[in-house]
Write a structure and sequence with these properties.
This protein is of the alpha/beta class. It folds into 2 domains: 162 residues, Aspartate Aminotransferase, domain 1 (Alpha-Beta Complex); 219 residues, Type I PLP-dependent aspartate aminotransferase-like (Major domain) (Aspartate Aminotransferase, domain 2, 3-Layer(aba) Sandwich), CATH 3.40.640. 39% of the residues lie in helices and 15% in strands. It contains 15 helices and 15 strands. The strands form 3 sheets. A 7-stranded mixed β-sheet has the order 4-10-9-8-7-5-6, with helices on both faces. Helix 4 packs antiparallel against helix 13, helix 5 runs parallel beside helix 13 and helix 13 packs across helix 15. The chain is globular, with a radius of gyration of 21 Å. It binds pyridoxal-5'-phosphate. Pyridoxal-5'-phosphate (PLP) binds next to helix 6.
Length: 444
């Protein structure tokens, strides 16, 4: 079989262009739209000129996204960017992959909404079966949600019904979402929890990332939690990969303490780390969690998430008595499910191999850059197509802004914003990636 390559896009319709930026970014149309947003959106949400200026002394609005294809995003002023964020890791098979667009269009015309738990829709049934086949045994039964946070809520609730206990052990830097339950497990960041400190409780017990076997065992025996929740490759908290054997140690500790192990693979699932799921070192260590949360790249663009568990763990909920104990209006949204089925087909058709090749190239080119400029960069973190480049002197935000002007979309990550976080669409081409690394060096 030919070596997988990423010199060209997998489909001619995937955006494989280099950036094209005319004039200052954001342009006049973008600025006008952001002014309108400032009047009508809760001010806590989008970082706008006034707030950024106060914090950083540099006035800068975000660009307004207008359309996207593959790894390319166009803004309201028709500037073309290369998206190194992959839309927070959502655009796994690229923005607007033609196969996903076709599946979504067909489904939108046929049936947009099912009747949740009352009357299931065909695509939800098909996706539940496909996910059981996609994930390792014994993960076999699913609870669908619309957002990543909802998948985490479902996992936490499942852990409570399965163990009869509450409480969760989690890890420093972990990010699991913003809804109250997910927030209570998220260590990233204290500011997110502070206003709700009296409402989110009980908070998780947070252990250091990479905590020793002794401290994990001690925390489990002291706190008797329902679950340990971990991102097997930590994303927002700083693209941190665990040491070999660490996830296996967690598995063993949970088994001995009769505590469920939850993998939050909302960011890393679906090829991001070079595996279908079981990211970080989980696949190499042969570790399977009791509950697995997926979202983001599952659909490559549509709000659908999944919490998947074994038959044994899910049976703790008991059979439905007519009114479901856990459901939502958009449960297993047919359009989202159609997108996810198309994404799975693409992964089975070579996207995973492409992700691995891209990920290796990302790692080696960032390593070369870090070695060439040790004055500006520390180490390279992460795995596969989730990489973090440690930046010295708190310069990550300045570098992101400079790259934006050159047509590359990038975000910092880490509790101190200490890394540049690269999670591009898995269809990104070699020329797009190499152009980004050259642009980063030029920004220095
Ligand atoms: C690991 C992880 N878990 C959960 C979430 C929350 O997902 P959502 O924002 O879709 O609620 C995120 C979002 O970034 C995430 O990265």
């Amino acid at each position: 079989m030919a070596e997988p390559t990423f010199d060209a896009p997998p489909d001619p319709a995937c955006g494989a262009a280099l950036p094209q930026v005319d004039g200052p970014v954001p342009g006049p149309e973008g600025r006008a739209l952001v002014d309108l947003l400032a009047r009508h959106e809760c001010p806590a949400i989008t970082a706008r000129r006034a707030r950024r200026s106060e914090q950083t002394g540099v006035g800068q609005d975000p660009i307004v996204w207008e359309r996207a294809r593959g790894a390319n995003v166009w803004d309201a002023d028709d500037n073309r960017f290369v998206d190194l964020t992959g839309g927070f890791g959502v655009a796994s098979v690229g923005h607007g992959h033609p196969a996903v667009v076709a599946a979504v269009s067909e489904q939108a015309a046929r049936l947009a909404h099912g009747l949740g738990d009352a009357f299931p829709a065909r695509r939800r049934i098909e996706l539940a079966a496909a996910l059981a086949a996609w994930t390792p045994d014994p993960l076999e039964q699913v609870i669908f949600g619309s957002s990543g946070s909802e998948a985490v809520e479902a996992a936490l609730k499942t852990a409570v019904v399965a163990t009869g206990r509450g409480g969760v052990v989690a890890f420093e830097g972990g990010y699991h979402g913003m809804s109250l339950g997910a927030l209570s497990a998220s260590h990233y960041r204290e500011a997110f929890r502070r206003p709700f400190a009296d409402r989110v409780g009980p908070l998780a017990t947070w252990l250091p990332w990479g905590a020793s076997a002794g401290s994990v065992a001690a925390a489990l025996s002291e706190h008797r939690p329902a679950a340990v929740i971990v991102e097997p490759l930590q994303g927002r908290g700083g693209c941190r990969a665990p040491a070999p054997g660490w996830l296996a140690m967690l598995r063993g500790a949970c088994d001995r303490a009769d505590v469920l192990l939850i993998f939050d693979e909302i960011f890393t699932g679906f090829g991001r780390a070079g595996e279908r799921v079981l990211s970080g070192t989980a696949a190499a260590d042969g570790v399977v969690p009791d509950l697995l949360c997926l979202g983001k790249g599952l659909t490559s663009g549509y709000p659908l998430s999944a919490c998947i568990g074994s038959v044994q763990v899910m049976s703790a909920w008991g059979a439905s008595q007519g009114e479901s104990l856990h459901t939502s209006t958009f449960l297993g949204h047919p359009v989202g499910c159609a997108a996810a089925l198309a994404v799975i087909d693409l992964f089975e058709g070579g996207m995973l191999e492409r992700a691995r090749t891209l990920g290796e190239h990302m790692g080696s080119t960032l390593q070369t850059l870090a070695e060439r400029r040790p004055d500006r960069f520390g180490g390279v973190r992460g795995r596969g197509a989730m990489r973090g480049l440690e930046v010295r002197d708190g310069a990550s935000m300045t570098l992101c802004r400079a790259l934006l002007q050159r047509g590359y979309l990038l975000l910092p990550a880490g509790l101190e914003g200490e890394v540049l976080s690269f999670t591009p669409p898995l269809v990104t081409t070699r020329a797009q990636w190499d152009g980004a690394v050259d642009a980063l060096e030029a920004c220095l």
